[in-house]
Design goal:
Length: about 130
């Protein structure tokens, strides 16, 4: 394999301009789990294909093209099975602190409550 060829460097998700990624994990004392938050550029449209007999998801129905909000503020991928889905709340809180979210009131009213759209999916790792 040629180390200088096109396969010399596998691309990273953070190579996508404007895409930010955060990660936290807990390892040791019986733990081996984590959560990843992907923060796309404003106006990013999300989509999902949920499969399996016991999917662990949160707000993935918001990605249906017939819903009110067509964009996402973040996507959360988590361990911990259904328990890990609570981590989406932390990502949603962070988005709110950054001023991200759907304006649930008059758009030009600075006092409008914002609702960050943060779909999440759990990887079964219990």
């Amino acid at each position: 394999m040629d180390a200088s060829g096109p396969w010399a460097r596998w691309g990273s998700i953070t190579d996508v301009p404007g895409l930010r990624v955060g990660h936290a994990q807990r390892v040791g004392d019986g733990w081996l789990s984590g959560v990843t938050a992907v923060i796309p550029p404003p106006g990013t449209v999300g989509a999902v294909d949920v499969r399996g007999g016991g999917p662990g998801t949160h707000e993935t129905d918001a990605l249906d093209p017939t819903t009110l909000v067509p964009t996402v503020d973040a996507v959360t991928l988590t361990g911990g099975s259904a328990f890990g889905l609570a981590s989406a709340g932390g990502v949603q809180r962070w988005c709110l602190e950054q001023g991200l979210g759907f304006a649930a009131g008059p758009v030009h009213d600075p006092t409008s409550i914002r609702v960050p759209i943060v779909p999440a999916a759990a990887v079964f790792d219990l």
